[in-house]
Fold this sequence. Notes:
The chain is an all-beta fold. Among the domains are: 1-78, Thrombin, subunit H; 191-304, Beta Barrel (Lipocalin), CATH 2.40.128. The chain is 0% helix and 54% strand. The protein is built from no helices and 33 strands. It has strands spanning 7-12, 15-20, 23-27, 33-39, 41-46, 49-54, 57-61, 67-73, 75-76, 84-89, 92-96, 110-111, 119-123, 126-130, 136-142, 144-149, 152-157, 166-170, 184-185, 192-197, 200-205, 210-216, 218-219, 227-231, 234-238, 244-250, 252-253, 261-265, 268-272, 278-284, 286-287, 294-299, 302-307. The strands form nine sheets. The chain has a four-stranded antiparallel sheet with strand order 1-2-3-4, with no helix packed on it. Strands 5-6-7-8 form a four-stranded antiparallel sheet, with no helix packed on it. A four-stranded antiparallel sheet has the order 12-13-14-15, with no helix packed on it.
Amino acid sequence: MTLEFKYASGFHEGLACVQKNDSFGFIDKTGNFVIEPKFNFTGDFSEGLAVFEEHDKYGYIDKKGNIAIPPTYEYALIFSEGMAAVALGDNEYVFIDKNGNKAFDKKFVTLEAFSEGLASVMEKNKWGYINKDGQYEIKPRFTFAAQFKQGFAVVKTKSLLARKEKITFINKQGNYLIEPKFEFASDFYEGTALVKVNDKYGFISLNGDYIIEPQFEAAQEFSENLAPAMINNKWGYIDRSGKIIIEPEYEYTYCFSNGMASVEVNGLFGFINKAGEMVIPPQFEEVEKFSEGFAVVYKNDTYFFIDTNGNLL
C-alpha cells in the first residue's frame, strides 16, 4: 500500500516527520509509525530531539514520542551542539541545554544555532558571535552574521562611506578572509563557497582565491563535486574546474544528494544521476533532495516518499 501524506519532510536520524489528516507524527524507513500522529506540529529530529507544538507553545520530544522538554516557549529551534535557541517572548531568545535549563542568562533579539562552537547573535542591531559560556568571541559589528562552516562565516557589513552592504567571510578571530566585496555569498561546503560579483556567480576556495571566476547567470553550491549552474537561461552542472559535465538543458536544477539530483522539465521534476541520465522521469510538482536514501515528492495534493530507483515507500 502506498503511503500518502498531507505533508512530509525528509528523513533525519532515521525518522521522517509526516502529517496525517491534521496531526503530525514520525515514520521509520519501513513506513511504519514510530510516533503516532498526535501533535499539532513537529519539526525534524536533531541530536535525538524534535520540536513540537501544543496549545501555541513549543517544546521537545524524544524518539519515543515522550515529552523531553515541556512546551513552555513561544518558539523553538533545533538542537545543535547540545544547545537550542528558544523564544521567551517577542525578540527575547535564550539558549537551553537538553534538560531544558538555560545555558546562560543572556537574552538576545535574534540569533542562529551553534555551529563549530560559536553562535551568531544580534544585540543593539548588530551581529556578533558568542561561545558556549555566552561570552563574546567576536563583538557585534556586522549587519548580519551567518553560522560558521569549515572555519569561516558569511557576514554583511556597511562602512560609513558605503551606500550598500557588502558581504565577505570572517575567521573565528573575526578577521576578514577577503575584503568585503560580494553581492552574495553562500556558506563554505566541500571546500568552496558560491559568490556573486557584478551580477555574475563564481566560486572561491578556503584561502579566498577564485577557483572559478564569476561568469554564470546563476549557480548553486557544490555537492558531491558537482554544482548547478545557469548558462543562457538553462541549468546544467559543472565540475570544480568550471567545465560543463551535464549540459544546460533544464528549467531548474537542485544539488546532488545520494548520487541523485532533481531537475525540472516542462514544469515537472524528475531525478538524474551523475552521468546525466534520467533515472526517475519528470512527474512531480515539488521535490526535496534525497536524504538517507529517500526523497519527499509531491503531486496531486499529496506527499510521498521514493527511493533512488523511484519506488514508492
